């Protein structure tokens, strides 16, 4: 690998989508104004890649592992251990990490509905107060509670809790559905988890944070949801595999944790929220600066995925256009100072705004390097979209194959 070359991957989480009648039968990506991604797709290379292997559930855990060149079937042990790494939580032996969402459950005539997987997008400060209460009242030598960001937190089970056969479901995959059939089930440990969830609900009923939220007209976080369980993974670093040294930039603990296990430096950017109000310019600044000491950076943006989970076409268009303007545009401009570089852009998975949950399927990618400028690639398109990327005819059946080609600047297609 060339030491002077800089390798940059930009991931707009959940950007891939289906055509919508509201957008003249175009997908949000196709409809949105994306001059910078169009520039990359027209001057470089574009196609499709299967980031989610068969028999794997579509999610940012599987998708980001795949994008970074890892085979999820081989290395994935669960979502929460990756988040634990990001939070500096060391899992030992048979420790099991669980994602703990603060959620809002709606009671409709005795039927309990998953109303909001994010607890009304509760703030990190509010959530920290709640998790501190959980640790005080529910924490023990068997269970520990750790605050994360916004609605995303962790519970670690010690002392050999059995997760074989245990089935859990992501709350963002069951929007507006009755929760009964999606509660933890499958083995004897499920009863323990359900008991913890019930005790947490009792605490939340009278918590000062929820009292204040209700008084100000905000949705209360009136329940928790435990899911994404797993043990510590055993995976090689990117330096060991590819000679890469670099950084990951994300507001999402899951992605930061993948970066840490991959041996990348996880950089915290002030004002990075994982939502539409994130510090886009800061992400670009910190990302480009990281290349002064490394040769790789992975910049992950959560906003498109959050917009889809909310079912908001307007917010998804805004998220895509902001990503293009501030992230892609900023990186294209800032990367000019480097002698040689390559930029690749791709979402980790589909998140159709009409479904409000992740789905599988090959996602579009595009890549550009200055060396491609005067090369007439067969695989390019003037407008970056799912359909146009498919029409180039270029397809990778795994993220690991795409990553290897990316490191080779796609020279095999010259």
TrEMBL record:
The keyword Isomerase applies. Its EC number is 5.4.2.12. CDD domains: iPGM_like (cd16011). This is Cofactor-independent phosphoglycerate mutase. Pathway: Carbohydrate degradation. Pfam families: Metalloenzyme, PhosphMutase. It catalyses: (2R)-2-phosphoglycerate = (2R)-3-phosphoglycerate. Residues 5-382 form the Metalloenzyme domain. Belongs to the BPG-independent phosphoglycerate mutase family. A-PGAM subfamily. It is an enzyme of class 5 (isomerase). GO terms for biological process: glycolytic process. It comes from Candidatus Acididesulfobacter diazotrophicus.
């Amino acid at each position: 690998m060339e030491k002077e070359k800089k390798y940059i991957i930009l991931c707009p989480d959940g950007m891939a989508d289906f055509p919508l009648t509201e957008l003249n039968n175009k997908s949000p990506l196709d409809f949105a104004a994306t001059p910078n991604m169009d520039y990359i797709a027209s001057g470089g290379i574009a196609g499709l890649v299967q980031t989610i292997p068969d028999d794997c559930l579509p999610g940012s855990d599987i998708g980001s592992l795949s994008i970074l060149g890892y085979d999820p079937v081989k290395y994935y042990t669960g979502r929460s251990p990756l988040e634990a790494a990001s939070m500096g939580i060391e899992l030992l032996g048979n420790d099991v990490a669980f994602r703990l969402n603060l959620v809002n459950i709606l009671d409709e005539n005795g039927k309990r509905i998953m109303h909001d997987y994010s607890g009304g997008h509760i703030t990190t400060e509010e959530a920290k107060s709640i998790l501190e209460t959980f640790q005080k009242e529910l924490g023990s030598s068997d269970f520990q509670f750790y605050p994360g960001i916004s609605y995303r937190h962790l519970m670690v089970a010690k002392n050999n809790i059995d997760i074989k056969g245990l089935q859990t479901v992501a709350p963002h995959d069951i929007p507006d559905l009755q929760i009964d059939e999606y509660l933890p089930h499958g083995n004897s440990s499920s009863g323990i988890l359900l008991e913890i969830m019930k005790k947490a609900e009792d605490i939340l009923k009278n918590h000062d944070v929820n009292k204040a939220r209700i008084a100000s007209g905000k949705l209360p976080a009136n329940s928790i949801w435990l899911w994404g369980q797993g043990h510590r993974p055993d995976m090689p670093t990117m330096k060991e595999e590819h000679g890469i040294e670099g950084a990951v930039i994300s507001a999402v603990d899951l992605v930061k944790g993948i970066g840490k296990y991959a041996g990348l430096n996880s950089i915290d950017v002030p004002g990075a929220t994982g939502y539409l109000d994130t510090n886009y310019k800061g992400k670009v600044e910190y990302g480009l600066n990281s290349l002064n000491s490394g040769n790789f950076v992975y910049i992950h943006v959560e906003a498109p995925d959050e917009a889809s989970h909310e079912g908001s076409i307007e917010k998804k268009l805004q998220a895509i256009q902001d990503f293009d303007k501030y992230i892609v545009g900023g990186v294209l401009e800032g990367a000019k100072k480097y002698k040689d570089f390559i930029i690749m852009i791709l979402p980790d998975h589909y998140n159709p705004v009409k479904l409000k949950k992740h789905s599988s399927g090959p996602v579009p990618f595009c890549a550009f390097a200055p060396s491609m400028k005067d090369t007439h690639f067969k695989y390019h398109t003037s407008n970056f979209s799912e359909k146009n990327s498919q029409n180039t005819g270029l397809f990778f059946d795994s993220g690991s194959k795409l990553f290897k080609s990316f490191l080779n600047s796609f020279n095999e297609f010259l």
